[in-house]
Amino acid sequence: MEKLNELEFTLLEKLSNKYPLLKEHIPYLRVKNREITGVGMYVKFCYLEPIEDKNINIPDGSLSANENIEIESLKNGLGYEVDISKGKVNFIEFITYNEEWDGSISNFSINEWEE
Amino acid sequence: MTPVGQGITEMNPVGAGYNIYSGVTTGNDMWGNPMGAGGYVSAGLTFIPGVGWVKAIGRAGNIVNRFGHIFGKAEHALGSLVLKFGSEEKAFLAVQDAANAALKAGKLTPNSKGILRSGDMGDIIDVGGMSVRLIGGKVENGIVIISSFSRKGL
User: Fold this and answer.
1) Which of A92, B12, B17, B96 has the fewest C-beta atoms under 10 angstroms from its C-beta?
2) A29 domain residue, yes or no
3) pLDDT tens digits, residue range B97-152?
4) Which residue of B has its CA nearest to A102?
5) Looking at the domain assignment, is residue A12 inside a domain?
6) Scanning every residue of chain B, which has its alpha carbon at the shortest distance from the alpha carbon of A60?
7) Strands (E), chain B
8) Pairing, β B52-56 against β A29-36
9) Which domain range does residue A47 map to?
10) ipTM of the complex
């Protein structure tokens, strides 16, 4: 189990402004694995301890604040959403926009959705 | 696992193509690309500075990655869609056609850069009578470049 990297932590922190229950989960989250698909990445989470008795379950679904993640290696940046299953944070799905990606992240910035 | 770095001078070799000397990984990575000074490999995982340990299940530059990314995730709940259309490729093409039709009909909501939303704000399209939620995507030259899609929670 690994700690969340800066991008993962920052994204979840920002997303918790829109979904406040999410904030309660962040201290318990660790990275179970990361899978690079060539056009995105899945970051699978596990929990440091059971949370079932903490009454902080999040309704199942897919969460995103639709920020665009800008990184040096991608012209169009990254999008993302967070999968919630059985009340828990299951994984982050990172996606590219018509670009291949080797999974490297450097000097990222997170920009609000522009209409 | 601990990344090989300063102060760690030795690590067991972990697979064909990788040789680790004095804390530096040499040879090719699992995609056949030369390893840079910033990456390390152990037990099938690669350490990318700033990211952490990762497993590569796709390879940049490979067109089938998009299928693997989308259909390889059970949580996307695409089994019934693949069953309906007969294969992942045909299901993908059906979603592509439906997305383009939805765009033409003014049913998609890209931003000024052509980016489509994801998460619970993602556009839901009709694909042969089945609802599919787009996960991002980009509109270029009047067509939708699909990033990912899912049927979870619809």
Assistant:
1) B12
2) yes
3) 999 999 999 999 999 999 999 999 999 999 999 999 999 999 999 999 999 999 99
4) B60
5) yes
6) B153
7) 18-21, 24-27, 40-42, 45-48, 52-56, 124-127, 130-135, 138-140, 143-145, 148-150
8) parallel
9) 6-103
10) 0.94
Number of domains in chain A: 1
Amino acid at site B110: P
A 50-109 → B contacts, CB under 8 A: 60-66, 68, 76, 79-83, 85, 90-91, 93, 95-98, 100-106
- For residue B55, the model assigns a pLDDT of 78
Q: Please state the domain extents for chain B.
A: 1-56, 66-150
Distance of CA B122 to the CA centre of its chain: 17
User: Does residue A109 lie in a domain region?
Assistant: no
Strands (E), A1-115: 29-36, 40-47, 61-63, 68-70, 78-85, 88-96, 109-111
Of the partner residues A85, A102, A105, the one whose CB lies closest to the CB of residue B60: A102
